[in-house]
């Protein structure tokens, strides 16, 4: 039981260290990421709406081509 707890703690510690390393390495590039404030990002209703409109358009074209 104690061994299981030690292994779990070691895994959690390694995961936290890996995350901190990833965060430190990627933080320099966060300022270059413009999509979070963009209208065309996944987080925007406009961007999400465009995705579904394009998906419906592609399906309509595919159905039209199959009927030919």
Structure description:
- This protein is mainly α.
- The protein has one domain.
- The longest helix has 25 residues, at 2-26.
- It has helices at residues 2-26, 45-67.
- It starts with a helix and ends with a helix.
Basic shape: elongated
Q: What's the alpha carbon Rg, rounded to whole Å?
A: 23 Å
Query: Tally of extended strands?
Result: 0
Biggest sheet features: none
Number of domains: 1
Helical/strand content category: mainly alpha
Low-confidence stretches: none
What is the CA-CA span between the terminal residues?
Answer: 67 Å
Estimate what percentage of residues fall within beta strands: under 5%
Mean pLDDT: 80
Order of helices and strands: HH
SS element count, helices: 2
Percent of residues in helices: over 70%
List keywords for this structure.
68 residues; mainly alpha; 2 helices; 71% helix; 0% strand
SSE map:
Blueprint: H1 2-26, H2 45-67
What is shown here, in short?
By secondary structure, the protein is mainly alpha-helical. The chain has helices at 2-26, 45-67.
């Amino acid at each position: 039981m104690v061994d299981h707890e030690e292994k779990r703690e070691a895994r959690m510690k390694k995961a936290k260290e890996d995350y901190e390393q990833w965060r430190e390495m990627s933080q320099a590039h966060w300022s270059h990421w413009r999509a979070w404030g963009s209208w065309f990002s996944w987080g925007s209703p406009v961007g999400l709406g465009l995705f579904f409109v394009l998906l419906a358009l592609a399906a309509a074209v595919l159905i039209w081509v199959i009927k030919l």
